[in-house]
Amino acid sequence: MKFSVTILGCSSATPTSDRNASSQLINHNEKLFLVDCGEGTQVQLRRNHFRFIRIDHIFISHLHGDHFFGLVGLISTMHLLGRKNRLHIYAPPELEDVILLQLRISATTLDYPLHFHPTQAEISATIMENNYLEVITLPLNHRIPTTGFIFREKPGLRSINSKAVKEYNVPYTVFEVLKTGSDYTTPDGKVISNEKLTTTPAPSRSYVYCSDTAYYEAVIPAIEGVDVLYHETTFMADKATIAAEKFHSTTVEAATIALKAGVKKLLIGHYSARYDDLQPLCEETKTVFPESYLTLDGMVFDI
Amino acid sequence: MKFSVTILGCSSATPTSDRNASSQLINHNEKLFLVDCGEGTQVQLRRNHFRFIRIDHIFISHLHGDHFFGLVGLISTMHLLGRKNRLHIYAPPELEDVILLQLRISATTLDYPLHFHPTQAEISATIMENNYLEVITLPLNHRIPTTGFIFREKPGLRSINSKAVKEYNVPYTVFEVLKTGSDYTTPDGKVISNEKLTTTPAPSRSYVYCSDTAYYEAVIPAIEGVDVLYHETTFMADKATIAAEKFHSTTVEAATIALKAGVKKLLIGHYSARYDDLQPLCEETKTVFPESYLTLDGMVFDI
């Protein structure tokens, strides 16, 4: 089952010629989820050949402009492209007013329903789920209310071992129950353990998006052992004081969170425009957490 | 004296990978004026190597998103870059609320003054002037209140003919008066005509920005004989019915306005995303008005 993240923007506050403002597209089982939507995101989606119509859920971490100024343009373009399907937006409550005001003054009446789901930055909550995936908010520590997002696969169903069910004469009517882990009792009362009749599903995978935040150990219990953690690294370690003042993180701080949480892989991003060469940020992150990777616009990472 | 226009976006409603939403930068005597500010304009300014700090006046033609969704991002970036100078915004009155609301929810307090000058779409009025240039609104015919903008040089001062003033013994204290066209009377009462003492200034130049509008002959008297007219051509001539319904213009309609107004040069733009190849739009425009030019992002035209 596909599970990947495409980086649409890796810049912090001010976009540059080759680094757009924050946005990422997550593909899970061919369902597309947009996380943050800085100015220029709709063009980045085009450049990366994503069809807008396939995005039904958009998650906004917080209301600094570099994370949402592109949303109203994307909503408008979806309308102009003939969208009819409901679009779900998970964001701090004030965003609804901003979007509706802009649509109103531009005399735009959308041809599709827009469904705002207000997030609460103080608590962790499951805000979306389908059969395979759930999305959980993660309170962060920034200047204004901010949530990260945990994308976690639901535990998979066990697979039927076709040879074994034949051997034990198990009727197909109980297959769905077997997939959930139940044992099978034969008509003459003999119990066949589930392990004999099914095989273990692939392990559930998880992706965590942490932007923007100061160094914040409170996130660790919720992200322990995740497959891929994206954590902002606005600054290098020598700018730790500025980072703290601005409620952002350094390379070393992101790496320390990754290390303490025992994640498998760390992606870094949200770089200050002061850095032309980003390689030193990656190298500095690796000194603390070797499995660290630089993200750049257009890069795709499998989870 | 420099007078040029740089195309920052030539697309209509939906931006594409290589055509940004509407925006143009006018350089007159090294003063920069931004006209419209679709999403992505700040990155286009960077790509074309303009320093944001030099822009003190921004003109917004109307409140369709492709003409203003980039403004709040530009305003925010100017703040982050340390701007202190006042920024003047000439726009329909509702825009002020939209900008202030977005700054408020993102907890941004600008370090520089923002001065909104509400425009009125029903009348033509001089909304800005300096020593050399004036900017006049031009009512257009669109679905919502919309103004074009006329950038017109003020009549230049006459130049002193240094040989002649020496010959007639004219004191330098009267030079400024001579430049305005006055004759000179010698101490013994003899009148020397101004034509003998000064030379004619370069003719005043003018640039007109017409977007968005249906075919609208009412603009003709105001733009008669201008040097360069930019007029939207969202559609080719075979789409005249759609153009009229959407209050946009075709190639032939823009060319007809240019022809009837006797302008010197026509620039076309604001192309529908349906056109991959734009050359046919230019050729069709030229069948009516030969001095027509295609605009593309990044092109610069001298006025």
Structure description:
- The structure is a homodimer of 303-residue chains.
- The mean pLDDT of chain A is 95.
- In chain A, β2 and β3 (31-35) form a beta hairpin.
- A 7-stranded mixed sheet of chain A has the order 6-5-4-3-2-1-18.
- The first copy, chain A, has 2 domains: 3-156 and 202-302, 4-Layer Sandwich (Metallo-beta-lactamase, Chain A); 159-199, no CATH class.
- Chain A contains 10 helices and 18 strands.
- In chain A, 24% of the residues lie in helices and 26% in strands.
- Chain A is an alpha/beta fold.
- The N and C termini of chain A lie close together (10 Å).
- The first copy, chain A, has helices at residues 41-47, 71-80, 95-105, 162-167, 175-179, 194-197, 220-223, 240-245, 251-261, 279-288; strands at 3-9, 23-28, 31-35, 55-59, 87-91, 114-118, 126-129, 133-139, 147-153, 159-160, 184-185, 191-192, 198-199, 206-210, 228-232, 265-269, 292-294, 300-302.
- The A-B interface holds A 13-17, 20-21, 39-40, 42-43, 46-47, 63-66, 69-70, 72-73, 76-77, 80-81, 92, 94-95, 97-98, 101-102, 105-108, 143-144 and B 13-17, 20-21, 39-40, 42-43, 46-47, 63-66, 69-70, 72-73, 76-77, 80-81, 92, 94-95, 97-98, 101-102, 105-108, 143-144.
